[in-house]
């Protein structure tokens, strides 16, 4: 499954990737105007129009003795999509581990186990409030689908230029980080100012010095 996804993302099979990418984008855009049930029903109806037409065509060829009675979708019907007991147990274990990891991380962030991580989480939530005002979840999903199918191909074609830009950005971030650390160290190591003497102590010390001079 992972290999098939990588092949789709990197456009190694142009026809299959175009069909999957176009279908995903059209379905997601359709959800802006229609409900999910309507979109799924239309997709199933469209698929069944194609399969039913092909099945009737092959049946007609079989009646005319031009086809030995081969089912056009026999390979799909023979494909075993069932899960064995071992595969089911492994899949359930992976899902449970992912849920447990997510719950643990959220609990750690909400109850301030690490101050830095919780501050990052607060900043992320604050930025997400602005993202939620500008776009809804469906828009973000469409953007994510377009990015998944376009960014790997862009990186593959412009790999040298992108690496050069990333190195420059990393050097700039490292310079800013070192500057902030040096400023923090200089502020931290600067001596504290001596406390100013109180007026009452100065007035008491002056008569004592006069008495000693006499």
Q: Which band does the percent of strand residues land in? A: under 5%
Tell how many strands the DSSP assignment holds. Answer: 0
How many H/I helices? 9
- Could you spell the SSE succession in H and E letters? HHHHHHHHH
Rounded mean pLDDT score: 82
Report the structural category. Answer: mainly alpha
Overall form: elongated
Helix content: over 70%
Distance separating the two termini: 102 Å
The profile of the biggest β sheet is: none
Question: Quick summary of this structure?
Answer:
With 214 residues, the chain is mostly helical. 80% of the residues lie in helices and 0% in strands.
Give an overview of the whole structure:
- This protein is mostly helical and 214 residues long.
- Helix content is 80%, strand content 0%.
- It has helices at residues 2-9, 14-30, 36-63, 74-78, 85-110, 115-134, 137-157, 159-189, 199-213.
- Helix 2 runs antiparallel to helix 7.
- Mean pLDDT is 82; it is low at 201-214.
- The chain crosses the membrane at residues 17-34, 134-155.
- It comes from Lates calcarifer.
- Pfam families: Reticulon.
- Residues 5-212 form the Reticulon domain.
- Its main location: endoplasmic reticulum.
Which features would summarize this protein structure in a list?
mainly alpha, 214 residues, 80% helix, disordered C terminus, 9 helices
Chart the SSEs and their pairings:
Elements (H helix, E strand, L loop, with lengths): L1 H8 L4 H17 L5 H28 L10 H5 L6 H26 L4 H20 L2 H21 L1 H31 L9 H15 L1
Helix pairs in contact: 2-7
């Amino acid at each position: 499954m992972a290999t098939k996804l990588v092949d789709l993302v990197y456009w190694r099979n142009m026809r299959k990737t175009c069909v999957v990418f176009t279908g995903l984008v059209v379905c997601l855009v359709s959800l802006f105007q229609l409900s999910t049930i309507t979109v799924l029903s239309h997709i199933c109806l469209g698929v069944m129009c194609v399969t039913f037409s092909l099945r009737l065509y092959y049946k007609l060829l079989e009646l005319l003795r031009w086809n030995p009675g081969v089912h056009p979708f026999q390979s799909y019907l023979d494909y075993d999509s069932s899960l064995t007991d071992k595969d089911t147990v492994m899949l359930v274990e992976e899902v449970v581990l992912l849920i447990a990891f997510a719950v643990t991380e959220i609990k750690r962030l909400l109850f301030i186990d690490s101050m830095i991580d919780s501050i990052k989480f607060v900043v992320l939530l604050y930025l997400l409030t602005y993202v939620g005002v500008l776009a809804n979840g469906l828009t973000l999903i469409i953007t994510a689908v377009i990015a998944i199918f376009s960014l790997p191909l862009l990186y593959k074609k412009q790999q040298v230029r992108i690496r050069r830009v990333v190195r420059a950005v990393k050097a700039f971030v490292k310079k800013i980080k070192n500057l902030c650390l040096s400023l923090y160290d200089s502020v931290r190591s600067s001596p504290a100012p001596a406390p100013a003497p109180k007026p009452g102590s100065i007035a008491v010390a002056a008569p004592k010095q006069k008495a000693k001079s006499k």
